[in-house]
Amino acid sequence: MQLPLQGLRVLVTRPAHQAGRFSELLTAAGALPQLFPVMAIETVRTAPDSLLQIKQAAYNWVIFISANAVESGLKLLSDYPCLEKIKIGAIGKQTAAALGKYGFTQVIAPEAGFTSEDFLALTALQELHNQHILIVRGDAGREVLADTLRQRGAKVVYAKVYQRYSIGSGAKLKQVHAEQPLDIICITSTEILQNLLQLLGTETWIYQLPLVVGSERIAAYAQQLGFNNRIIVATSPADDAMLAALIEWRQDNEE
User: Fold this and answer.
1) Is 255 a residue whose pLDDT tops 70?
2) Is the model's pLDDT at 1 over the cut of 70?
3) CA–CA separation, 223 and 190 (whole Å)
4) Residue 184 has pLDDT above 90, yes or no
5) Which of 9, 11, 107, 228 has the most CB within a 10 Å radius?
6) 228 or 182, greater pLDDT
């Protein structure tokens, strides 16, 4: 019996430390994953003062933006019991699951969705007068979460616990595609897509390939950059959701 993604050459662009399970899922479905990370993530060397103030019970809330924020933040903090009396928020189930690995089970996160808007829709986030909130994140990101929390009365500060930087070789990727053409590209963030195009410079062949992306926001960004056809939108950037989108796309194209 033929597997659902039999022989499909899939370019996996997410950071190497996050690509392992997705690669295994692709292989099990018959695909030929081509691992080509275009972004690396590194924990900052020194814990920011805003993060260390958790130990002085300076906050009512600590909100983790991503699984990377959990891993880097808790690595820098090292002392987890200080979080037990603080409300902990997570932007999406993946982030909540990352916290669960460290024993945090009372995490406030949306049942569905994975964006700041989904998190902000929660009842617990509506009235925040004089609440002190720490947002744990990387070196950049959208401001909608902090801005909205402030509008609702909160005092918000950031703890930037990791940094992202572009890696990879455009010449190497061109060679990979020339030797055995890629069939589709997986994109899980706007930064990853931006880095991919920067690596390729003036190369235009990349725009001819279909993309499977992790959100409508990424799809809209891809369209702005010139990917006007064949953008498949998964229900989330999670491994299972991206795989399901690939399988559905493959089935639709075989009919």
Assistant:
1) no
2) no
3) 11
4) yes
5) 11
6) 182
Quickly state the pLDDT bin for 149 (edges 50, 70, 90). Answer: very high
Residues shown for the chain:
255
- CA-CA-CA-CA torsion sign (90, 95, 97, 101): negative
Q: Which residue has the tokens 């906050």?
A: 59
Phi first, then psi, for residue 158 (nearest 5°) are -105, 150
Res. 80: pLDDT tops 90:
no
Backbone angles phi, psi at 233, to 5 degrees: -105, 115
- Are the C-beta atoms of residues 184 and 12 closer than 8 Å to each other? no
Give residue 219's pLDDT. Answer: 94
Task: Read off the DSSP letter of residue 6.
Answer: T
CA dist., res. 118 & res. 8, Å (int): 33
Residue 203 reports pLDDT greater than 90: no
Angle between helices 190-200 and 170-179 (to 10 degrees): 80
Work out whether strand 107-108 and strand 61-64 pair parallel, antiparallel, or are unpaired. Answer: unpaired
Euclidean distance between CA atoms 171 and 204, whole angstroms: 13
Q: What is the pTM of this model?
A: 0.84
Whether the Cβ atoms of residue 196 and residue 169 lie closer than 8 Å to each other: no
Cα(199)–Cα(229) distance, integer angstroms: 21
Strand-by-strand arrangement of the 132-138 sheet? 39-43, 155-166, 132-138, 61-64, 87-90, 107-108
